[in-house]
Amino acid sequence: MLLIPCPYCGFPRPEIEFRHAGEAHLMRPEEPASDEAYAAFLYERENPKGIAAERWRHVHGCGRYFNALRDTVSDRILAVYKPGEVRPEVAS
Amino acid sequence: MSGFRATSGGRFDRARRVSFTFDGVAYLGHPGDTLASALMANGVSLVGRSFKYHRPRGVLAAGAEEPNALVTVDRGPGRITPNCRATEVELFEGLVARSQNRFPSLGFDLGAINSMLKPLFPAGFYYKTFMGPAINGKAKFWNRLFEPLIRRAAGLGAAPTEPDPDAYASLFAHCEVLVVGSGEAGLRAALSASENPAVRVILCEMDHDFGGWLLADPTGARFRDEAIATLRTRPNVRLLSRTQCFGLFLQGFVGLVERVTDHLADPAIDAPRERLWQVRAGRIVIATGAIERPLVFPDNDRPGVMLSSAAHILQGRYGVLPGRAIVVATATDAAYRTAFALADGGARIEAILDRRDHAGERVRAEAEARGIRVETGLTLLGTTGKKHVTGVSYAPMQNQDLRGPSQVIACDTLLVSGGFTPTLHLLSQARGSLRWDEPLSAFVPDKVPENINIAGLASGDFPPELRGAALGLLPGNDDKSALAFVDFQNDVTARDIRLATREGFRSIEHVKRYTTTGMATDQGKTSNINALSIAAESLSQSLPKTGHTTFRMPYVPVTFGTLAGAYRAELFDPIRRTPMHDLAEKRGAVFEDIGLWKRAHAFPRAGESVKAAVQRETRTVREHVGIFDASTLGKIEVTGRDAAAFLDRIYANPVANLAPGRCRYALMLNEAGFLIEDGIVARLSDQRFHITTTTGGVGKVLHLLEDYRQTEFIDLDCFLAPVTEHWAVIAVQGPKAREVIAPLIEGINVAADAMPHMTIREGRLTGVPCRLMRASFTGERGFEVNVPADFGFFAMEALLARAEGLGGGLYGLEAMHILRAEKGYIIIGQETDGTVTPHDLGLGWAMGKAPRDFIGKRGLARPDLLAKGRKQLVGLLPDDPAVVLEEGAQIILQHEPSTGIAAQGHVTSAYFSPNLGRGFALAMLKDGRNRMGEVVTIPMPGERVLARIVSPVFLDPEGRALHG
Asked: Quick check: B730 and B765 in contact, CB under 8 A?
């Protein structure tokens, strides 16, 4: 079970307090957008081996959404940050 | 009959005795015994029958790795535990244990005929031999005849059928260091880690006593006793015996299971049977030791054949000798030590047969000094005996060739030592990796996660006496008919593994599944390395290249009770009841499970069928008035300066222009443009909205709305509050709806012109605050009365009394479904499936004409969503009015279809309507709106039904009944 720190509540906390909410930093394409660009926004995801930026919600806590960088190989959360903040640089 | 209790030795209570039964026969043992040690002390060596061939089997090992001695422990009704390892079952007064997989008895087992039919049971036999002819493409002979027969004949113990009456506890713990295993390495790790009082240490041990090997070794006893005494004085140390570490998970998360009462004759009534510890450990020390491997040669499975280390433990811990005339066959020096210990205990060592050309200097010298016959450089060719070993045959070897004739030594016990395997299941579970150590002939830790340490034998740091190995089938044994067992629990022989590789299975994972080696409750603890070795040899490749199978948790089986803990019955599957539940119950409701909710399906009267009740209720609403509990509807209150702007972006319908006091039926799309939710948006005031969702959708909707509020529409100032359980909702529907509510309502003018369709007002109902909505999901004049949940029961009682006075009454979920379908009102998840747009449903009007942006707008403009020929909502009237179509049935256009015709749509809802006097249906059909009046075919069980395509609105298309 993952340990996840909440950027609002602090401390690493067990995964069961959280709910995964998909890939982070998905940007709706600027309109007018091509159908291909919009389809990519809807359906194409990174799924990297290594560092993934993803969204989580502290659903059984403060209820807030935030971003996290997770190493998909070690399953460690390397950084958490609030929506709108710049994705931090981390080494896996 | 060969085992006996020596007059001295062991760490058990020699003074006291406990009685127990095995297969109904009473025996005596001592506190501190295991079932295995007590049975052997009583001379019982036949304890089980093997999985496939029903071969007689005895105790092979000394702990969790035991593959043979699986017994059923019976603690009374519902408390029958199958597949317990007799080597782990602690003796207590009155213990009742039974052998398994035998009929009619352990001594005379009819299933043993399988042994004579062994050519029928090669690897993968169940795939090849028994399939039989397929009938209509289905393997009926397999499913109905062979599989049940084989399952009965080949198997382990039977699970109890009664519910488990025991309680199981669960708790969380945190520590800086968790030590798994309390042998010498584990004790030293715990001692050193706990020197600092700020370091919390948990030491867990599967056995009922701490010490591991030290318990069998008189020279280690003092260190063990002192270490435990020291650890007990340290408040930062928690010692957990009878506690298995069954799984290592991410980031130091560990699952432990503690056996709390199974070893007690008379457990406290409130004690849990087992306790699940969910531990978060900063550092984990794996000190799980090593497991000895048997030797693979023909008939190596007879009772009386035992691992050397197991015999050593039996003697050292329990003072039990497995026999009086013992032969030790070995590839390690460690087995010599066993021989010496057993000789000291009173057994006669007939010979030590060493597979190697040379034994270690020290043990060789001691054997010589003791006058023990030692033969080296040989191979084992078989054993004699039936239900117990009576002799062992061997022959001298030179390289891979027999050097001389075979010889037989008579004995009543054969101890075997094929080398040791570090116990690294936990490391593997924690995503560590193993590497093959050739000199050690064992897999040892390779990459170890940074929060894990491996200590003692598990690390591969073997003292010289534990080194040495005889892997795979011993040479000189190519007789194809001989059964040389590799996996004792699954009856997998060397021949089976060779056969699997000959038949093309090259991956060790495939060999495992095809032969079943390494599967079932022991997970190949004693067999995996031998199986690998045989597979590697027959594939002519190295053992490291062959690799090893994945170690799965749990290390030993964990009860479902432990994993479920308190979360059983209503705590696992909670029941949600509306505030008016008791009223519905009193009125004879038949309930239906909708998610977690109990909803009234219908209210049959005395002597009335459920079907008839549904028809009556449906008519009552159209003719008089009906009362319906709609409390389960999802409800969210949206407030704030920008609440209107927020909802305007969320819903496909314009919401910003909704005047206070007005309601709107609104659609929610996902980004792709598909309909995911519907409900009513009611504007209470400028900055306050009451929105409803489907019963099942409210959690998802709230999650989604919060997402947009927090991360996307951050320019907007609004708040969301889930209020589903705050409001009880009573729908009052029918021509007399106003008559029902009018006298009960205070502070609201409910006249037709003052409160038209799709409005909301706040006032009181019989003195209770109420949000009164004029809305309809039936097509009739309707009100939805929202009162605080605590008043729901009384409000419904009052409304029902009025309704009944006017010829009305309660209606249930099924009547509601019919009423809405007659009007072509959709239900999310019934007419929609995540690929349906508002246009497909004829709801394009809801999005309004004015240009504005909302979620799903761009998605709706994608070419596929605009393409011609999409499925559209239509009504269907079967030619035969008595027919009710199957929901989910496929629709085809041809009346005499040939095979392979593609379906053009499907039935989404179908009922019998008393108001139409016939069966009718809603359906999604390709290009349906252009096909009005056409006749389609619906294949149904046993027949084909013709139906005419009609408008999905079957009644009152102008909506007159809604108004006034």
From this structure: no
Nearest CB partner across the interface for B711, out of A38, A76, A83: A83
CB B143 within 8 Å of CB B70: no
pLDDT of residue B107: 80
CB B911, CB B884: distance < 8 Å:
yes
Task: List the domains of chain B with CATH numbers.
Answer: 166-292+419-464 (3.50.50.60), 475-548 (1.10.10), 585-633+725-836 (3.30.1360.120), 634-723 (3.30.70.1400), 869-958 (2.40.30.110)
**Predicted local confidence at residue B850, as pLDDT:** 85
Selecting from B249, B251, B706 the residue whose C-beta is nearest the C-beta of A76 gives B251
Contact B703 A3 (CB under 8 A): no
Residue B631 CB coordination number (10 Å): 27
Chain B residue numbers with beta carbons less than 8 Å from the beta carbon of A75 are 250-251
- pLDDT one-digit tens code per residue, B369-427: 999 999 999 999 999 999 999 999 999 998 778 888 999 999 999 999 999 999 999 99
**Residues of B engaging A, defined by a Cβ cutoff of 8 Å:** 249-253, 280, 431, 671-672, 703, 706-707, 710-711, 714, 858-859, 862-863
Interface test with A, best of B710, B713, B857 (most A CBs within 10 A): B710
CA distance A45 to chain B (A): 15
Q: What is the DSSP string of A1-60?
A: --EEEETTTEEEEEGGG-EEEEES---PPPSS--HHHHHHHHH-----SSEEEEEEE-TT
Q: For B186-216, what is each residue's pLDDT tens digit?
A: 999 999 999 999 999 999 999 999 999 999 9
| Strands B168-180, B201-204: pairing kind | parallel
**Radius of gyration, alpha carbons of chain B:** 37
Q: Please tell me the predicted confidence (pLDDT) of residue B523.
A: 85
Share of chain B above pLDDT 70, in %: 96
Q: Strand, coil or helix: what is B343?
A: helix
More confident residue, B963 or B151: B963
Q: Is the pLDDT reported for residue B738 higher than 80?
A: yes
Structure confidence by residue, pLDDT tens digits, B912-929: 999 999 999 999 999 999
Domain locations in chain A? 3-81
pLDDT in tens, B259-285: 999 999 999 999 999 999 999 999 999
Residues of A with CB under 8 A from a CB of B: 1-3, 14, 19, 21, 28, 31, 33, 35, 38-39, 41-42, 55, 57, 59, 63-65, 74-76, 83-84
Q: What is the ipTM of this complex?
A: 0.97
Q: What is the pLDDT of residues B98-117, one digit of tens each?
A: 998 877 788 877 777 777 66
Determine whether the interchain pair A33/B858 forms a contact, defined as Cβ–Cβ distance below 8 Å: yes
Residues 6+ apart with CB under 8 A from B487: B67, B515, B516, B517, B518, B524, B527, B531
Which residue in the block uniquely carries the two structure tokens 């443009």?
A: B673
Residue B420 C-beta-side C-alpha neighbours within 13 Å: 27
CA distance B136 to B132: 13
The pLDDT value recorded for residue B255 is 96
Given an 8 Å threshold on Cβ–Cβ distance, is B280 in contact with A55? Answer: no
Task: List CB contacts of B40: < 8 A, sequence separation 6 or more.
Answer: B3, B59, B314, B320, B322
Phi-psi map region of B640: left, alpha, beta (phi>0 left; psi -120 to 50 alpha): left
On whether the A3-81 domain is CATH 3.20.20.30, my answer is no
Q: What's the gap in Å between the CA of B710 and the closest CA on chain A?
A: 7
Say how far apart CA B755 and CA B437 lie, in whole Å.
Answer: 85
Cβ contact, residue pair B714, A84, below 8 Å = yes
If one compares B30 and B154, the residue with the highest pLDDT of the two is: B30
Give the whole-angstrom CA distance, residue B623 versus residue B780: 10
CB contact under 8 A, B707 and A64: no
